[in-house]
């Protein structure tokens, strides 16, 4: 699933507008209430995120949705005494206009006539206004930009410590506090103690004395723990602060009663004093960081990600703050160790078994006319759930027929649900969380006879997929330099797709993770390294007609080409995803010999590896399907 | 010629160190002399550039060379009361160490242990020091960075208006003031008056009231004038300030006596008052800009390039200053009009005639053993100079045999000069200025039998050259997205080259110009547009053995692929350079059918177009050579 696609983890999409008049009245009261603000504020900004800048958020954090009704993944609401406006991008213009009532003005981002949030505020606010925002859910760099623009126009941006949406939110869901799962060395390959030691070594190297971890997946990875606080993402709400001799973990303390967990974290009998974890309530991170900062020596430096919340970032005095685009945890986590790679491979084999079953089942059921986008997605989940160590899906399944396939961020809803048939293209982009790994795969298939144009487009997309997957490139190459390889065949025919080509994938963690990726847009990506795992997912979308995407998760591995210029070494990719790519969709005439060889070798691997597992599991129909679908092409 | 390569326009390379003891003593005196500085300064920074941030500079601006002896294209010298240090990059470590005496410390940039200029200054300066620099030769953004670092350490960066090198420079050359050449519509396609009108339209669109032009090629282009103040670059020292009703040109007034020039600029009888040019002495730009800024209205905005000098930039009050990475002149100049394209085509045909003659001549002369890198370069210049409207070379010829070819920025010197033979690879990268256009072409040839390895590498480079030249891509694509196409074949075999793939080329202007290019390094490039002209020059360099580069200048043209996704339109390239690529160097087995077709079609064009011109000029030997070298391959 592409990083460009939506991540709706809030309530299900409703298409009738939310009635917001009374809510806005209450919010505007709160904006003047001295219980919350020392002086009245003239505007209140409601961003999308949570305090950890998560891509997916928990229901209790869906504040922007609560106040305006719009539940897309991206959008910022701003309420003034007179106005209420919500900014979102082109993917959501229709949905937002349907979900918001006429108290709200939809601000269509990307259109020339749409003002920026800052410009709009400056145009509507009385002189010398105060604009409030919850400093926990705005990132430090966003705060800086907005504050600068407002200040230069005579206004000011002020931090409102109590969230004003929470103040007016009746029956706001509780912050989730699901059971924590410990992961042993057989899954992680390295103990949390060794991860701490490696982190400290990096801190020493850069003369850093403290590290503040705020990203939920980094904290889960660091302690070899998983939770289920956010749908699709096996993370839990927490902060961590690591010093050279101390480790502080901030988490709902009720979660720490489980003996296995206490043992895992050595809470009762730490082996060494500097590996002893002190636990604190989740909410006390602020005061604890304040206390740490009050005691900093003149040369002490604190690492914090520049995407961390403004609230936490500003606790650290500027002279001691070292903001970084990617934390050392993010960088280390991205390079999977051999145990993690083994786990990811196992997860992908199980996932392939489930998909082989799905496709074999679909072939039989579709002619009966009873399979819909939703039921097919449910069936995929059912097959996956039968596999060992299945935990849940890794993102909402994109299951789309015909024209729905051209909507890149499509997710089937009762009112859009189409029936699969032998006349239309079917695209399914789905993935799961297993205890040993995370999957994400897209296949585009036809159960009847695809048109010549569909086959032509599919083949260009396939050529792009292969061009990336088979690319050999020097060590140190950044992923964005490979993006054009995925497009060359489409470009040659005047076609393209308007999304990136790949994203990093976590290991039983978030399906989207930094710092690597393959996109024409990102130049802040870190170089690819052996052990990194990314997706390779070019596509083509014909509006109103069909969508095509071919996605494998691939592992960066060393390559051994003929020469080795300046001893730099080379890299290439190995597919982890092992699901046949439908030959019926290919115009094999358009493939070069090398590309045909790639397809045949890929299918040979699918047959060999997944076939053995299907056989072991005694899944005969799926095995038969696999064997038929992996016949060599000529 | 790649933008990465050197541009030595200073004195010829001397390899014995310059004696600098007395010079440094005088400079240190000047650093305390109240004639120049109100308070003594503890350090003085001497950058490489001139007041226009030119890539090539005039002898009078070679101040860093004068003070330390090192004459490479890149380097910054800093002199304190106790120390003298010079920073340069890996291309120049050897040369700099040979050219500087032991008063100087060579600071090897790119090595881990080498401090930045700021860190070094902070480590050697007494508390509260003043660091001086000539604000005219430091760009505004460089000033900002250095000033920030010094201030945070308790020092300050101060502008020293009189250049202290000039103060101690005996017999400093005069600033050149060569005769100006006017270009009529038959060369420019558009009058300077229409260029001014178009500029003002862009200013109106962006609500800009003044534009300050500081780049010499932009000023030459704007007024349809050329000079010869800087070797290889047909520019002249000038500034221009354009308002909505006024045009100010700052130039040595002695240059304006020529009646043709006065007529061209309509100095004596302007057609309209707002197209009347007011001329001022070159030096008065500062006071004149001050006067303009003193009279600015509250909403007036002034455009200036962010690469302009600190001195001029800071004249404009911050509230009125709108710095831009590329000026509207730079952007318009890059898109050549039909007249300019026609001129560039003509220039390239003439240039090809000269090169065909050169190669035919070399074939005959080399076996005699008398041709050297220098004499071959001279011969190339001689043949070029016989062509109509030849003005001079567009950069110093890179003429290199065997191992010298692996030195990317090589330029033959008496002490390195090798003899051409039938046993070694010969690389020649050369170009010329004609009144109708600028050329830049690299060919790599063998006059005997190239080894299998040389042929293999050459063929990979050729594949890369073709991949870029034949690429089809959507409108709006930035050049850096094409860079990997040039490398894919080399990468596949573990090879690469450590420079960019292409640079913009001016039309009878600088051989390197922005804002477009093809490089993995630049993400600030502007999208390619039909009419832009860039080089396509991948290479491969085997240290100590040989260098390969294949360079054509190519024109961006509309492409007409089968489909037209979202009506975006597509682009591709048309080669302007029409010089055969040596078939003997190719391993044709490694070429695909498409690549063979490209080579044959390219050679057919060379034969047809250049053949006709060779015939017209009666150059029989060269024609014979051309016909032989353009036989189709199978």
TrEMBL record, chains A, B:
Ligase recorded as keyword: no
Keywords, ordered alphabetically: Acetylation, Aminopeptidase, Cytoplasm, Hydrolase, Manganese, Metal-binding, Metalloprotease, Protease
Reaction(s) catalysed by this chain's protein: Release of any N-terminal amino acid, including proline, that is linked to proline, even from a dipeptide or tripeptide
Domain Peptidase M24: 343-556
GO terms for cellular component: cytoplasm
Purpose of the protein: Metalloaminopeptidase that catalyzes the removal of a penultimate prolyl residue from the N-termini of peptides, such as Arg-Pro-Pro. Contributes to the degradation of bradykinin.
GO BP terms: proteolysis
Cofactor(s) in the UniProt record: Mn(2+)
Its EC number(s): 3.4.11.9
Name of the protein: Xaa-Pro aminopeptidase 1
Family: Belongs to the peptidase M24B family.
Molecular functions per Gene Ontology: metal ion binding; metalloaminopeptidase activity
């Amino acid at each position: 699933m592409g990083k460009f696609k939506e991540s709706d983890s809030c309530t299900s999409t409703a298409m009738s507008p939310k009635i917001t008049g009374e809510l806005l009245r209450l919010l505007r009261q709160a904006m003047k209430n001295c219980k919350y603000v020392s002086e009245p504020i003239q505007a209140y900004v409601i961003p999308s995120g949570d305090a950890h800048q998560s891509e997916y958020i928990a229901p209790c954090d869906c504040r922007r949705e609560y106040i305006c009704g719009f539940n897309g993944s991206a959008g910022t609401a701003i309420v003034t005494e007179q106005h209420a406006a919500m900014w979102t991008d082109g993917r959501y213009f229709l949905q937002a206009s349907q979900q918001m009532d006429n108290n709200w003005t939809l601000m269509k981002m990307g259109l020339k006539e749409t003002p920026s949030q800052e410009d709009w505020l400056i145009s509507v606010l009385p002189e010398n206004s105060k604009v409030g925002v919850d400093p926990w859910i705005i990132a430090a760099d966003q705060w800086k930009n907005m504050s600068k623009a407002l200040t230069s126009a005579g206004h000011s941006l002020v931090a409102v410590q109590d969230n004003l949406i929470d103040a007016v939110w009746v029956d706001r869901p509780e912050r989730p506090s699901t059971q924590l799962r410990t992961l042993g060395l057989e899954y992680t390959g390295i103990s949390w103690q060794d991860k701490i030691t490696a982190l400290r070594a990096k801190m020493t190297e850069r003369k850093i004395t403290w590290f503040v971890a705020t990203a939920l997946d980094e904290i889960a990875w660091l302690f070899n723990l998983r939770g289920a606080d956010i749908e699709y993402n096996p993370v839990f709400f927490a902060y961590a602060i690591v010093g050279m001799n101390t480790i502080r973990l901030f988490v709902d303390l009720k979660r720490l009663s489980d003996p296995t967990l206490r043992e895992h974290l050595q809470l009762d009998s730490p082996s060494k004093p500097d590996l002893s974890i002190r636990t604190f309530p989740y909410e006390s991170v602020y005061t604890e960081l304040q206390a740490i900062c009050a005691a900093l020596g003149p040369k002490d430096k604190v690492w914090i990600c520049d995407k961390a919340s403004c609230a936490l970032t500003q606790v650290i005095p500027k002279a001691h703050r070292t903001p970084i685009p990617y934390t050392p945890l993010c960088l280390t986590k991205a390079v999977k160790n051999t145990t993690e790679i083994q786990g990811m491979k196992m997860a992908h084999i199980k996932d392939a078994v489930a998909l082989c079953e799905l496709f074999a089942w679909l072939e039989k059921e579709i002619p009966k006319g009873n399979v819909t986008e939703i039921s097919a997605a449910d069936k995929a989940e059912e097959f996956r759930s039968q596999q060992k160590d299945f935990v849940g899906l890794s993102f909402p399944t994109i299951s789309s027929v015909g024209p729905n396939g051209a909507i890149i961020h499509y997710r089937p809803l009762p009112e859009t649900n189409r029936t699969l048939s032998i006349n239309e293209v079917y695209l399914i982009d789905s993935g799961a969380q297993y205890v040993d790994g995370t999957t994400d795969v897209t296949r585009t298939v036809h159960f009847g006879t695809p048109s010549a144009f569909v086959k032509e487009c599919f083949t260009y997309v396939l050529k792009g997929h292969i061009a990336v997957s088979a690319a050999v490139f020097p060590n140190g190459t950044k992923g964005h330099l490979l993006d054009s390889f995925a497009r060359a065949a489409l470009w040659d025919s005047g076609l393209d797709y308007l999304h990136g080509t790949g994203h990093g994938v976590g290991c039983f963690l978030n399906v989207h993770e930094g710092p690597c990726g393959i996109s024409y847009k990102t130049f802040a990506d870190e170089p690819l390294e052996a052990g990194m795992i990314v997706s390779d997912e070019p596509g083509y979308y014909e509006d109103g007609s069909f969508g095509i995407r071919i996605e494998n998760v691939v592992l960066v591995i060393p390559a051994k080409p003929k020469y080795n210029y300046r001893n730099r070494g080379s890299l290439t990719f190995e597919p982890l995803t092992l699901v046949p790519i439908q030959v019926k969709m290919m115009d094999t005439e358009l493939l070069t010999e090398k590309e045909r060889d790639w397809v045949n070798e890929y299918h040979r691997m699918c047959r060999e590896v997944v076939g053995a597992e299907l056989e072991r599991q005694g899944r005969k129909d799926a095995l038969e399907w696999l064997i038929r679908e992996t016949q060599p092409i000529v």
